[in-house]
Specification:
By secondary structure, the protein is mainly alpha-helical. Helices cover about 70% and strands about 0% of the residues. Strands 1-2 form a two-stranded antiparallel ribbon.
Length: about 425
């Protein structure tokens, strides 16, 4: 593996990635527009904040249920087909929200169904990326995707509200559906067809637990996932406290917006710095320190610093959270290709569940203590927890992309048929 970091031009020189990237942005924007538009539709139709919140929060619930059940589709069918089908299905379902007389509970169920199509889409794309990009281009592309996701997250909410104001709810929903239609078209045009990872005649052994089993049986994958889950849970617990934090500092909605935008801004800046200024080997060495820093820097909020310093700390926490970019690349290379979709599904499902749980726990704590105290304690606890995981972190082989030999399918025999081999090679995919 070369020590020179790949450039953005080298990443975008890959034709398939250009189309995957454009489709990813459109699909991500569509997800944001769906959440904002349907939640607004529910609220204006019922006046119920609880139903509107349920509509918006359905994306978390969809990952918790659809992640384990549906991400395995990316390992059983051609991944290009999964991407196209998920986009076309969302494009077909979303306009149904504009049907007159549709009850609010039905809208919540509709949005939940639409969100169920995201886990197989994300898993299929994540599993396809190492096949499209080799060497450090794969790691840098993960950084590009992450940076753009942060930007879309910040801009998507404002654009969603503007579309509703300019085009009406029905018009906004049609634009929303159009983003998925164009995404599917780009994938069909620009991404080459590949066979399903599992040969059609091979026995379909239990797939739902295969991703979890692959992660649990390999110490490197266990370390990658546990560090990601731990650092993210303690760091993003603060995200659910931005409103009470703004109130504590005497601010209003504008202050909440600034606080919410700080971490994504830092994540984007950290992603650029990590992928463009650090050589590949250095990125791997920085993962654990940055994971601890992403939570630990928030411990200073306990001291109730000035608001400008709180914003700076949130930016720094977001920048350190960019450790997930090289970690994602290591994880993607280490998982056998025929289990990659399910393994990513397990990782993202656990991440969503823990982040949501951490936000709820932080909110309950903030009913009793000041938001600054809860955020500071969460940050300090997160740093300690990550550092406690240091003995589990792989020391020697974590710096190089690794791959497993493809496990041999053994028809109707022992349970080892679905287990990856422990021997890794230094070849690039």
């Amino acid at each position: 593996m070369t020590e020179r970091a790949a450039t953005y031009s080298e990443v975008f020189a890959v034709r398939e990635y250009r189309y995957l990237f454009a489709a990813y942005l459109l699909s991500l924007a569509g997800d944001q527009l769906t959440a904002v538009t349907v939640a607004y539709l529910v609220y204006t139709g019922t006046g119920s904040a609880a139903l509107a919140a349920a509509a918006y929060a359905s994306s978390y619930l969809a990952w918790l249920t659809g992640g384990p059940l549906l991400s395995g589709l990316a390992d059983r069918f051609p991944r290009r087909r999964i991407l196209v089908v998920c986009d076309l299905a969302r494009a077909a379902l979303i306009p149904a929200a504009a049907l007159p007389g549709l009850a609010a509970p039905a809208l919540v169920v509709l949005l939940f169904t639409v969100n169920l199509l995201r886990p197989p889409f994300v898993a299929a794309r994540a599993a396809l990326m190492p096949e499209v990009l080799d060497g450090d281009r794969y790691a840098v592309a993960n950084g590009v995707d992450n940076i753009c996701a942060q930007v879309v997250q910040v801009v998507g909410f404002a654009v969603g509200g503007s579309l509703v104001a300019l085009l009406s709810l029905r018009g906004a929903l049609l634009v929303d559906a159009g983003t998925f239609m164009v995404s599917a078209l780009l994938i069909m045009i620009g991404v080459g067809a590949r066979p399903a990872p599992r040969p059609p005649l091979s026995p379909a052994r239990p797939g739902r637990a295969a991703g979890l089993r692959v992660i649990c049986t390999d110490p490197r994958l266990r370390a990658y996932v546990v560090v990601l889950w731990t650092a993210s849970a303690f760091t993003y617990a603060a995200e659910g406290l931005m409103a009470p934090l703004a109130r504590q500092y005497g601010g209003g909605a504008g202050t909440v917006g600034l606080l919410l935008a700080a971490a994504p801004l830092g994540m984007a800046l950290g992603g650029v710095a990590l992928t463009r200024l650090c050589p590949p080997a250095a990125r791997a060495q920085l993962i654990l320190p940055l994971a601890a820093l992403s939570a630990g820097v928030l411990a200073a909020v306990w001291l109730v610093p000035p608001l400008w310093l709180v914003l700076l700390l949130l930016v720094l926490a977001g920048a350190a959270s960019a450790f997930a970019i090289p970690l994602n690349a290591l994880f993607g290379r280490a998982v056998p290709t025929e289990y990659r979709g399910r393994a990513f599904g397990v990782a993202i499902t656990g991440l969503s569940g823990l982040q949501g749980t951490a936000m709820v726990m932080a909110g309950l704590a903030a009913d009793r203590w000041p938001a600054t105290t809860v955020i500071g304690f969460s940050g300090l606890s997160g740093a300690v927890a990550v550092l406690a995981l240091a003995p589990l972190w792989p020391r020697r082989r974590a710096q190089a992309p690794v791959t497993f030999e493809v496990p041999i399918e053994q028809p109707r025999t022992t349970s080892t048929a679905d287990s990856p081999t422990a021997e890794a090679s230094g070849r690039r995919r």
